[in-house]
């Protein structure tokens, strides 16, 4: 499994992903699930992947292929709106899944992938999209300004408590680390390092990018301080009548 | 859906359940999912249910039927070990599911139920079991002294951080309320009131039982103080380099 998260804020976009992939329990590996594409003075795009690693990689390869093919009908540097890029990635994903559909059915395997797409086209607002395995997609709303793919439940409560569109990029990034770390603690199929990217609104450039290994100072001190803070919060909860 | 939780501690057992049931989104109702049975000087038993309400109710009815039938082969007041009671409830659940299996298959419906069984037979240690829809069951371990049924993921991280066998009954009960409340906030299929039961080790009597409605003081102040504590914990997280 996987856990990836994208947050759309007034001040920009925050992305986070874990790095564990597994085919069964005896083939566990570490892969980056985050890819960014920058077209200076035009658009910044970040793509997060979950599901079949083969499909995810094939889609990334097809994106790169189309970018270098002058005869390609479309590529991610084109389209006036980011949802056109979402549609294009959904189409690539469906094409790749269909290519192997017969073999998948015969072996009762699954090669579905989901994607989180985020970015900003110059002059427009930054946007995030969740692209389903079926190729259709949704964008986030002001009421729920984040989207998740993969093991999304463990890390959802903290997002629901903290994130609003006016949250700062840094707070949202900290919340993303906590959301990822809670998931990593509770589900063995999600693992470090945590990749983090921050796109500041209207800065069409390579996003801030950081790989938080379990040895990194930031990750360790978030873990330690969050754990201590939770324990303190827990110790302050009200007593039952008979404890007073 | 549902979320039920049982925790086995050195000092006793803690149980919690939500109260929402739904058949589709247009038939949502409030039902208790917690039932206790006390046989003075012999055993205390608490049963939590999730899944098909029809199957859950039929199993409870069968338990009561067998208790009043002097010719019943087995009932929950019998058996030298609590796992025999778990096996019996698993059998009742399978019988009930099989009775309707053809009709269920024809309408592609599902009448599976899962159960959490906990209790203590006098002179033995208190125990908790998770009974699967297939009728088989597992008990908790010292490393993971809790069991969950239903929407178990949202509320798991806080249990993983707080609960050990030496946690006090009151702390475990507070942790259960937080775990339930986090799930209620993040998943509309889980809803209040929260039912809470506490069985003190070696006290073979009616467990402490409380129904925490959204208006109850205990529930409201746990919600408020937990929310404030989390916000404080969050505000104390380390800053990124550029924030310093």
Walk me through this protein's architecture.
- Chains A, B: Keywords: Proteasome.
- Chains A, B: It comes from Aliiglaciecola lipolytica E3.
- Two copies of one chain form a homodimer.
- The first copy, chain A, has helices at 53-68, 82-99, 101-106, 156-162, 169-186, 217-235; strands spanning 3-9, 12-17, 20-22, 28-30, 34-39, 43-51, 113-121, 127-131, 137-139, 146-150, 194-200, 208-212.
- Chain A has 244 residues and is an alpha+beta fold.
- Chain A has one domain (3-238): Aminohydrolase, N-terminal nucleophile (Ntn) domain (Glutamine Phosphoribosylpyrophosphate, subunit 1, domain 1), CATH 3.60.20.10.
- In chain A, the strands form three sheets. Chain A has a five-stranded antiparallel beta sheet with strand order 10-1-2-11-12, with helices on one face.
- In chain A, helix 1 crosses helix 2 (82-99), helix 4 packs antiparallel against helix 5 and helix 5 (169-186) packs across helix 6.
- The mean pLDDT of chain A is 96.
- The interface between A and B is large, with 40 and 40 residues.
């Amino acid at each position: 499994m996987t856990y990836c998260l994208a947050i759309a804020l007034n001040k920009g976009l925050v992305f986070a992903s874990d790095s564990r992939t597994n085919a069964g329990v005896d083939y566990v590996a570490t892969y980056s699930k985050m890819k960014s594409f920058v077209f200076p003075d035009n658009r910044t795009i970040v793509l997060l992947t979950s599901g079949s690693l083969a499909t995810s990689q094939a889609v990334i390869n097809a994106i790169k292929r189309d970018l270098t093919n002058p005869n390609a009908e479309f590529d991610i540097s084109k389209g006036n709106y980011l949802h056109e890029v979402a549609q294009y990635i959904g189409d690539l994903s469906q094409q790749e899944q269909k290519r192997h559909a017969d073999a998948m059915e015969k072996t009762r395997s699954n090669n579905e992938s989901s994607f989180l797409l985020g970015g900003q086209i110059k002059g427009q607002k930054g946007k995030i999209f969740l692209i389903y395995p079926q190729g259709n997609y949704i964008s986030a709303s002001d009421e729920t300004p984040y989207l998740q793919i993969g093991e999304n439940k463990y890390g959802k409560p903290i997002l629901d408590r903290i994130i609003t569109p006016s949250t700062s990029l840094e707070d949202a990034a900290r919340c993303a680390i906590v959301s990822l770390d809670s998931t990593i603690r509770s589900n063995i199929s999600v693992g470090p390092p945590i990749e983090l990217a921050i796109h500041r609104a209207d800065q069409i450039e390579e996003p801030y990018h950081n790989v938080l290994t379990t040895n990194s100072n930031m990750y360790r001190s978030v873990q330690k301080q969050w754990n201590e803070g939770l324990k303190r919060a827990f110790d302050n909860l009200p007593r039952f009548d008979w404890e007073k």
